[in-house]
Structures are given as structure tokens and as C-alpha cells.
Specification:
The protein has helices at 2-10, 15-44, 47-75, 77-97, 102-114, 119-130, 136-164, 167-186, 189-193, 210-237, 243-262, 271-283, 291-304, 306-318, 326-355, 357-377. By secondary structure, it is mostly helical. 60% of the residues are buried. The protein is globular. It has a single domain (15-196, 203-381), classed as Up-down Bundle (Growth Hormone, Chain: A), CATH 1.20.1250.20.
């Protein structure tokens, strides 16, 4: 039944194209995390320094995210996407090719983050204008499932290239995908057709909505856990062993399967907490298992609830804000996730250097448990979407009347 629903969704004109384009454009979001980790560690010999560089990238993205969302309402999506892609690609290429001291790598990583293309905010703003409101819930679920190819599948690709060929090539592959995918997405007809109305509210006010604040906090914690897991897996197998890429691939497949199987279930106020409880159960096993099979089994359990949780988060935001505020709202939630990447990588990197992979996985388990607790505390603020559309609220404005 779920397959038929997704098939009907993909037959809507333009949907399959925009999904493929945004997936290609967003793939570097996942690749750069481990790409920088491997590259800087190979140059400096320290996971701690690499974690700081990655933190600079994520903090830059976090600072720019909501502002980029607001800017797309003023200048249009296409100019902002094209300009940011060019600047970010140049900065990442410089990190890959130039012999930089640690401070130089941190500075360029910050520039890369500040200019990172706001594809996530753009595409989630476009979705409600492409499909009927009744199809938004499965569309967000499908988007969340495919996002796992970005957050987990992307690191698989970059890990295999970095360990099998070179870390320089891994970063340059990220740059190539950023340029190619960015152009494909920015020049898509769907991007040109949708115009974000200028919000009449003060910048940042949308974050005061309890649903947006909740999703931002939960996203921060759960993606921090994912980042810590990626770092722990890399440290468990070493920078020259491609086994870490295979383990992350298994995690990606489990999350993708969970998203597709659970994506059409009605979203109730407790859905997010329930899915994150499943994620926590799997992540909690990782400090106590060793080797390929043990980690793979634990991450299958964790992965099955991850994409469904992300799908719920997107639907909660979409159904709780006005259309003119959606890009900024998703900018804030994306900021939460990116700060989570920075925190997870930094904590797990320090734990890995000092105490080994089990300590890094312990950080991931604590962060996952915190995300489930926050989601449970926030149940009263979450909408009941059973039988309801997940589309944004319409903007209202005075209608001028011409005297007859």
C-alpha cells in the first residue's frame, strides 16, 4: 500500500525531478562531515583538530541558515542558491588543495558554512506548492527517507573514496556534486515557479512558535547523536579501513526502509517520541558491541526509526507556520541540526582521542536519549495530523476594493 502511495506521489508532474535534483544538491551536506574529518586528521594526526574544523563548518551553516531562508523571500530562491553554491565550492576546494595550517582550515570551513546553499529550506518550502495538501505527509516521509542517503549514505561514499583513494579526492568529489547538483536544483522549473512572500514578522519570531522550537531542539539532539555515531564508526575501524563505509551503508538502508514502511502512518502527537525511543534503543547498544556484525545489528535497530522521526518533524513544522515563514522556520530547524553535527563531532572526536570508540558511542547514546525525552515532554505542543493536511497556513492580506 505504501509503495502505491509513493508511486502516485511521484507521478505528480515535476515531483520526481525536484526530488532527484534536491537530493543531488544536498548530498554534500553529508559528505563534507566525514570528508573534512578524514582530510584534516590525515594532515594533523588529531581527531580533535578535525572535530574543531568540522564544528566551524557547522557553526557557519547554523548562523547563515535562517538568514538565507529570509533572504530567499527578498531576492528569490534562484539568485541566493547560485551565489551561495559558487562561494561555498571555492572555499571547500581550497581546503582540499591548499597546504593549510589548522587555523587556516578552520577559517575556510567557517566561510564554507556561512555560504552553504540553503537547499533544504528551499525544497521544503516548494513541496506544498507542488502537490495537493493530502499528499504532503507521504512526501515529507519520502523526503526524510531520502535524507538518510544524505546524512548516512553521503558519508559512505566519502569514506570509501577517502580510505580507498585519497582524502583530497573525497573533498573534490563533494565540490563537484555541490556544483552539479546545485545547478540542477537551482535551474529546475519548480524553483522558478515558487515565490516566497515577504514575511511581515520580525526575523526570528517564528522560532517562538512552540512547534518550531521543539523540532529545532529535537533535531539538534538527534543529529548530534548521528554525527557522534559517524565519528565513532570512523574511529572504530580506522581511516584506512573501508569497513566503516559498509557499516554506515547498512545504517542508511535500515533508515530508508523504516521511512518507507512507516511513512504513511498517521502522525499523532506521540509519534515523534515513539520513533526516537526506537532510535535510542539501538544507539544504546553501540558502546557494548564490537566489530562489523555487532555495530551493524545495533545500527539497524537505531536506523529503522530515524527517517520516520525526521518525517514527523518536517510535517510538524509545515502544519504549524504560515507559508511566508516556512523557509525561515526550516532554516532554524536546519540550524539546530547543524549545530548538532558540530557538537556531536566535537564531543565524539575528543572522546575518541581520549578513551576510544566505545566512549564516542556513549556520547551518541546520551544524545539520542535526550532527543526522545525532549520529544516526550513536548507532546502537548505537537499537532494531531490524523485526518488533517500537513500544509502550511495561508498568508492573509487586505484585499483592495475598487469602487464601482
Amino acid at each position: 500500500m505504501a509503495g502505491a502511495g509513493y508511486g502516485e506521489l511521484l507521478r505528480v508532474p515535476g515531483v520526481a525531478r525536484i526530488i532527484a535534483a534536491q537530493l543531488a544538491a544536498r548530498l554534500p551536506s553529508g559528505m563534507l562531515s566525514l570528508g573534512l574529518l578524514f582530510h584534516v586528521e590525515s594532515r594533523t594526526g588529531s581527531y580533535g583538530v578535525a572535530g574543531i574544523v568540522l564544528a566551524a563548518l557547522s557553526i557557519g551553516q547554523a548562523l547563515a541558515g535562517p538568514a538565507m531562508g529570509r533572504l530567499m523571500g527578498r531576492l528569490g530562491m534562484r539568485p541566493v542558491l547560485l551565489a551561495s553554491t559558487a562561494v561555498c565550492a571555492i572555499a571547500v576546494a581550497a581546503i582540499a588543495l591548499a597546504p593549510l595550517p589548522p587555523a587556516g582550515a578552520v577559517a575556510l570551513a567557517l566561510v564554507s558554512g556561512l555560504s552553504f546553499p540553503p537547499v533544504t529550506s528551499a525544497v521544503r518550502t516548494i513541496y506544498p506548492k507542488m502537490v495537493p495538501s493530502s499528499m504532503l505527509t507521504p512526501l515529507y516521509s519520502l523526503d526524510a527517507s531520502l535524507q538518510e542517503l544524505i546524512w548516512i549514505g553521503g558519508p559512505v561514499v566519502v569514506t570509501l573514496v577517502a580510505t580507498g583513494v585519497s582524502t583530497v579526492l573525497a573533498l573534490l568529489l563533494s565540490v563537484a556534486l555541490m556544483i552539479g547538483g546545485g545547478l540542477w536544483f537551482a535551474l529546475s522549473p519548480g524553483v522558478a515557479r515558487v515565490r516566497i512572500p515577504r514575511s511581515k514578522r520580525r526575523f526570528g519570531r517564528v522560532l517562538l512558535r512552540p512547534q518550531v522550537a521543539l523540532v529545532t531542539a529535537v533535531g539538534f539532539l538527534v543529529i548530534a547523536s548521528c554525527s557522534a555515531i559517524e565519528t565513532g564508526v570512523a574511529g572504530a575501524f580506522g581511516e584506512s579501513d573501508p569497513t566503516s563505509g559498509v557499516v554506515l551503508a547498512i545504517w542508511a538502508v535500515a533508515s530508508l526502509a523504516g521511512g518507507l514502511l512507516l511513512g504513511r502512518l498517521p502522525m499523532r502527537p506521540w509519534s515523534l517520541a515513539l520513533r526516537l525511543a526506537g532510535v535510542t534503543a539501538g544507539v544504546a547498544l553501540t558502546p557494548f558491541v564490537n566489530g562489523f556484525w555487532g555495530l551493524s545489528a545495533a545500527l539497524v535497530v537505531a536506523g529503522f526509526g530515524l527517517a520516520p522521526a525526521l518525517g514527523v518533524m518536517s510535517a510538524v513544522v509545515s502544519s504549524s507556520v504560515r507559508f511566508s515563514d516556512t523557509a525561515e522556520a526550516y532554516g532554524w530547524t536546519n540550524t539546530g541540526q547543524l549545530v548538532g553535527v558540530a557538537l556531536g563531532a566535537a564531543l565524539a572526536g575528543q572522546a575518541l582521542d581520549g578513551y576510544g570508540a566505545a566512549a564516542a558511542f556513549g556520547c551518541a547514546a546520551v544524545l539520542a536519549a535526550a532527543s526522545a525525552v525532549v520529544a516526550a515532554v513536548g507532546i502537548p505542543a505537537q499537532p494531531d495530523l490524523k485526518g488533517r493536511d500537513a500544509g502550511p497556513m495561508a498568508d492573509t492580506a487586505p484585499i483592495p476594493i475598487t469602487p464601482s
